[in-house]
Structure to design on (409 residues):
């Protein structure tokens, strides 16, 4: 199956994501910290667990609690309508306005990209920690020790797409991404070319998704080569797909 | 947060090991379309209010919902397209008759697409190689030896 199935490749390392690529969709779902520059009315109900990890100024919860319930009926109607149509589960006391000016949130990349513009009218984007100065120094010291899977499994793709937000640190970020990859590449290549028929979970555990793809390609090359060496390359074998599905029975075949 | 259901569809597909076709998630797709409908209607009413009532502060909210609509659309299209890629691979790896288990995983439209694809491929194959046509789904790999023996009939 793998041979005839040509999935849409990720474009995240290039200028734009590929619209149809599943990898890019998963990548752009990751969150980044954001600051709202203007209030977003009528959306409060959908930001109940606003920021799992981002810092919130102490002022934000108090500010929201003190706001008079201006849009009260609007939000309740909204909540009810969406509860019936989209089956959203909402806790009893939604905040009314999304964000006073300057509240910090974590939004997925797709949303941040959509709402961002040059004049920063709706929101301004902050860099996640691993793309900031501190971590960049760590990467330049030794890139191999870092667990990139934990740091957001799409380190390179996400970092490349972050460059769209015109941060003043863009040049440093792109350099850091490149140098990190250069530092780690050798080990990935070596391990993928020498781990034949073994459990590779220890080797791939600290790699991000792009590196894992590389590792798998290397493994496939290695397996194909071993297959050829054993003379199995010209033997007819059942395709992986057919083996994975149950064998079809003669009596079930219809025209 | 919006578009969670759409992401579930994508994850389901991504999880399926190397090119296998999971069952068609009709329910999930329907929920995504309902969410899109709800978003669209809210945006419609907010746009009217912004224009006639002069409430330009609603514009960021409208933009927000619009982004969610675009995202939902992207996820559904990518979901359907990736499934078609997998179904196409089935024709090449499995042959033209699929086991029932696989057929139940496809929606009616996907089945129709598969039949049309089969037909196009068969028409093309018949047009090659003279009278009998040539089955190009066999022998996909190049031959191992440099020379082949050819039988000539006079």
């Amino acid at each position: 199956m793998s041979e005839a199935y040509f999935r849409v490749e990720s474009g995240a390392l290039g200028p734009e994501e590929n619209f149809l690529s599943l990898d890019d969709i998963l990548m752009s779902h990751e969150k980044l910290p954001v600051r709202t520059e203007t209030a977003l009315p009528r959306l409060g109900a959908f930001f109940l667990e606003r920021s799992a990890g981002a810092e919130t100024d102490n002022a934000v919860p108090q500010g929201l609690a003190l706001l008079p319930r201006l849009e009260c009926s609007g939000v309740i109607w909204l909540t009810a309508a969406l509860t019936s149509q989209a089956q959203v589960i909402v806790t009893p006391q939604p905040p009314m306005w999304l964000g006073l000016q300057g509240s910090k949130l974590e939004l997925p990349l797709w949303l941040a990209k959509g709402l961002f513009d040059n004049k920063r009218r709706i929101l301004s984007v902050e860099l996640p920690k691993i793309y900031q100065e501190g971590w960049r120094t760590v990467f330049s010291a030794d890139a191999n020790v870092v667990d990139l899977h934990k740091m957001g499994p799409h380190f390179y793709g996400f970092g490349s797409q972050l460059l769209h937000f015109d941060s003043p640190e863009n040049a440093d970020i792109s350099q850091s991404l490149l140098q990190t990859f250069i530092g780690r590449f050798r080990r990935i290549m070596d391990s993928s070319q020498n781990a034949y028929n073994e459990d590779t979970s220890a080797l791939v555990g600290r790699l991000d998704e792009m590196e894992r793809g590389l590792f798998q390609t290397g493994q496939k090359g290695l397996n194909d080569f071993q297959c050829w060496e054993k003379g199995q390359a010209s033997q007819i074998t059942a395709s992986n797909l057919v083996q994975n599905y149950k064998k079809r029975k003669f009596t079930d075949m219809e025209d | 947060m919006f578009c969670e259901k759409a992401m579930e569809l994508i994850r389901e597909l991504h999880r399926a090991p190397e090119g296998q076709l999971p069952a068609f998630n009709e329910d999930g797709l329907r929920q995504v379309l309902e969410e899109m409908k709800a978003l669209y209607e809210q945006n419609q009413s907010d746009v009217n209010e912004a224009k006639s009532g002069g409430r330009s502060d609603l514009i960021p909210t409208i933009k927000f919902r619009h982004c969610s609509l675009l995202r939902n659309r992207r996820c559904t299209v990518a979901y359907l397209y990736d499934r078609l890629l997998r179904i196409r691979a089935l024709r090449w790896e499995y042959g033209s008759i699929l086991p029932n288990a696989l057929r139940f995983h496809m929606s009616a439209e996907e089945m129709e697409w598969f039949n049309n694809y089969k037909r196009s491929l068969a028409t093309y194959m018949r047009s090659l190689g003279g009278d009998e046509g040539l089955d190009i789904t066999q022998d996909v790999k190049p031959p191992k030896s440099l020379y082949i023996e050819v039988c000539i009939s006079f």
